[in-house]
Amino acid sequence: MEDAAGSPSVGGSYPQKNAEILSSQYGINLFLAGLLLTFAWAVHAVGISKSHLLSYLITLMLIQLLWMLWYLCRSCTQRRLIRDKDTHAGARWLKCGITLFAVITLILDSFKIGYYVDFSNCLSPTEGVFPVTHAVHTILQVYFLWCHAKDIIQSFKTLERFGVIHSVFTNLLLWTNGVLTESKHQLNEHKERLITLGFGNITIVLDDHAPQCNCTTTTLCSIFSQGIYYLYPFNIEYHILASTMLYVLWKNIGRKVEHHQQHKTPFKFHGITVGMIFGLMVLTSTIAIVVVYLIQIGGSKIKSELALTMFYLHAIFVLALMCTAGIVALLIYRLEDRSLDNSKNPARKLDAELLVGTAAGSWLLSWGSILAIICAQAHPKYTWYNLPYSVLVIIEKYIQNLFIIESIHREQEKVNDDIKTLRIVTISRGSTLSLTPSYKEIYNGRAARYSGEVPCLFKGSVCGRDNAGGAKEETSPENSSVTHSASDFSFYSRNSVTNNKRRILKNIAAFLFLCNLSLWIPPAFGCRPEYDNGLEEIVFGFEPWIIVVNLAMPFSIFYRMHSAASLFEVNCKT
Q1: Is 445 helix (H, G, I), strand (E, B) or coil?
Q2: Which of 288, 296, 269 is nearest to 571 (CA)?
Q3: What is the helix (H) or strand (E) element at residue 463, kind and residue range?
Q4: Mutual orientation of helices 218-251 and 92-118 as an angle, nearest 10°?
């Protein structure tokens, strides 16, 4: 009977595997078409305007909205059914993070709507429809992820695969559009800064997509146009987080899960004071450095060189601290003997792949800078600081990736509550007696229970027992004092060492969490020495190096935010 019942499920796996392959190919083609359209608009291809790109994105968002509404309605009609859940997917802190980014994205959409109203005379209607559609899409998508990110879909699996993968690549295209728009703005500012650094031999041609008409309200237009680019980093993070959560949902379709109790690991500030203090110091200093950098860079040649030197020295110091913290954490792991959790977990696998994959972006930039320093004929003084900075970027990501990936794969230590039982010690007639049984007695089930008997603690020490006449007598080789056995001291010693290691690891994770947030801020808000250094443009050429930076920088920015999220999980798990 079991074989007969099992055979259909085996045969039924082939159509589902085909559906997975077909849906993935559909998503890839959807993305490539949008990517090509985005590239055509960026290079001013003949016959391709921004309205064509926005129309394509609006269509994709409307299709996703229809699918999400259908899924939510079907879920409401079946809400009484017990569904399998992936306890590792859609953590609460991740939902809170994407909600924060979504709120700022809604502010960005309101700015775009205001910008369209002020320039409505010369802008395409799609530029007004797009932010409205995007705002509705954002609200419904966040609600969908809050309610259904943990779902393991077992019905309408083929249809749901196409719906989820459509959502994944729609968010990736919206992410690409945000990255390109923000990069073009940064590139225009970068070209202007190169003149102040003395790189006059580089051709400066501004790529301007500004409207060809006057604004109805000059002050509001200035606020909207400048504010939009400061909000884009949050919009970019929102879409990449949404796409990763939806990808995990897609991987979980039709998955068979083992039903076991999942221990909740809430975040606690207790015990991480040192890591938080040092991390907040790094965060505060980084914000100050970014503010000074953005004010000084481009002002004059001397100011620009001082800004670059200041940035490199600060970054070298922070990266050196992060490398040291990561090495200490890995050494602690080497001293522990704990097995790894190798169970199937799509969310954890995706986290590890994203860490290594996105780190390649900053590695590419670092190796480009190292090669430029080696090959350049002239070296301004500030460019030499770029060498240790680039080397440390490579080493720090290598160490941090090892620490995070091993942390999320380590099994949580299970502590027996009985072992946590504390002895209540009292002094009676100059002797030390324990009123509670030891952890060994509890474990072996030999604790005395309300029999009027004082449990025997140690060999050769005080032991209360009944004599033949029913009266109690005390026997002890030494009446003056009683010492604990070596096994008890060994247990408490090991427990103390374990707690100290755990406390150190939690402080390291908290410190690295804040450091990664700190290092996310500079490139996300325009502090990019890879643009402003100037040496790489001379060695590789302006256009080739700018292409490399524009391709690699988004991955480098995402790496810091994803690392911060992973380290937050490590801190909760440790």
Answers
A1: coil
A2: 269
A3: strand 463-466
A4: 150
CA 395, CA 327: separation in Å to the nearest integer? 11
The vertex-137 CA angle with 178 and 234, nearest 5°, equals 35
Angle at 384 between CA 383 and CA 387, to 5 degrees: 105
- pLDDT attached to residue 44: 79
Question: What 8-state DSSP symbol labels residue 382?
Answer: G
pLDDT at residue 397 is higher than 60:
yes
Task: Work out the number of other CB atoms within 10 angstroms of the CB of residue 546.
Answer: 19
How many other CB atoms are found less than 10 A from the CB of residue 509? 25
pLDDT digits (tens, 9 = 90+) for 142-199: 999 998 888 877 777 778 889 999 999 999 999 999 888 877 777 766 666 666 656 5
Instruction: Tell me how many degrees the CA angle 8-10-15 measures, rounded to the nearest 5.
Output: 90
The helix-helix angle for 386-409 and 542-573 (nearest 10°) equals: 40
Under DSSP, is residue 466 helix (H, G, I), strand (E, B) or coil? strand
The residues pairing with 474 across neighbouring beta strands, listed in sequence order, are 464
- In tens, the pLDDT along 219-244 reads 777 788 778 878 888 898 899 889 98
Please check whether residue 413 is in contact with residue 402, taking contact to mean a CB–CB distance below 8 angstroms: no
Mean pLDDT for the stretch of residues 514-521: 92
| Token pair belonging to 387 | 């060498």
Identify which of 17-21, 192-196, 298-302, 326-330 has the greatest average pLDDT.
Answer: 326-330
Residues 519 and 383: their CA atoms lie apart, in Å, by 20
Give phi and psi for 105, each to the nearest 5: -65, -35
How far is the CA of 281 from the CAs of 287, 505, 564, in angstroms? 10, 19, 16
Quick one: tokens of 168? Answer: 């994944």
Q: Which two tokens stand for residue 472?
A: 């109690």
- Tokens 């090509």 belong to 36
- Rg of the chain over all Cα atoms, to the nearest angstrom: 31
Strands 463-466 and 472-475: antiparallel
Provide the residue ranges of all domains of the chain, joining segments of one domain with +. Answer: 16-256, 268-412+496-573
CB 287 within 8 Å of CB 521: yes
- Give the position of tokens 């419904």: 140
pLDDT given at position 257: 65
Distance between start and end Cα atoms, the chain: 45
Q: Is 454 exposed, middle or buried (0-12, 13-18, 19+ CB in 10 A)?
A: middle
Q: Which two tokens stand for residue 390?
A: 């680039």
Amino acid letter, 273: T
Indicate the pTM of the whole model: 0.71
Residue 71: exposed, middle, or buried by beta-carbon count in 10 A (0-12, 13-18, 19+)?
A: buried
Amino acid at 557: I
The CA distances from residue 15 to 3, 208, 447, in Å, are 20, 50, 59
Residue 197 DSSP SS3? coil
What is the pLDDT, as a whole number, of residue 450?
41
Measured from the Cβ of residue 503, the count of other Cβ atoms closer than 10 Å reads 16
Per-residue tokens: 358: 């996105």
**Given 3-state DSSP classes, what are the helix, strand and coil percentages for the chain, each rounded to the nearest 5?**
70, 5, 25
Pairing of strands 425-428, 472-475: unpaired
